[in-house]
Amino acid sequence: MNARTLRRITLVGITLLLSWRHLAAQDADPIVGTWVLNVAKSIFSPGPAPQSESRTYVMEEEKTKLTARVAEPRTYMTVRQEIKATSHLVDGDGNPMTREWTIVNDGRDYPMAGDPDAEMVSRTRIDAFTVAFTQKRAGRVVITGTEVISRDGKVMTVTTNGINAKGQTLSHLAVFEKQ
Fold this sequence. Notes:
Elements lengths: L2 H24 L6 E5 L5 E3 L6 E18 L4 E17 L5 E8 L6 E4 L6 E8 L2 E8 L2 E10 L5 E9 L5 E10 L1
Antiparallel strand pairs: 1-3, 1-11, 2-11, 3-4, 4-5, 5-6, 6-7, 7-8, 8-9, 9-10, 10-11
């Protein structure tokens, strides 16, 4: 087989791989969709628990970067997904609140809007169904937690520990159900 044929086969293989990865990544993150808080199954300390919360996660952007060196048998590919998160909440006192943030599971800080407890969030994927996160206020980590989605994709459990904006120690276990 000559070098030209080998290059063509390599390019076809890379194209097929990218097409497959792009299609697989479309539904790869189980968080995409609408989730509603099940207040009865959730625990909020300090209280009071929110009266309701609905979170919507929408795939905003997907970037794929490919570097292929034909002379060397190396191919590098990076897929980055951005998910827009919006939370509509009614707190324990009946006050409505909307929070917004961007989800990228790369460990970097991204801004949060509308959250009195934090202004930045960073997330790191542990496995296909688990993410660890940290939230910061004034550059300091104030809240840590995890989001775990059940294997059937119907329940998301969010555990949160830290210090809220009032200086109170918080420990929450929030159970969301996919709609």
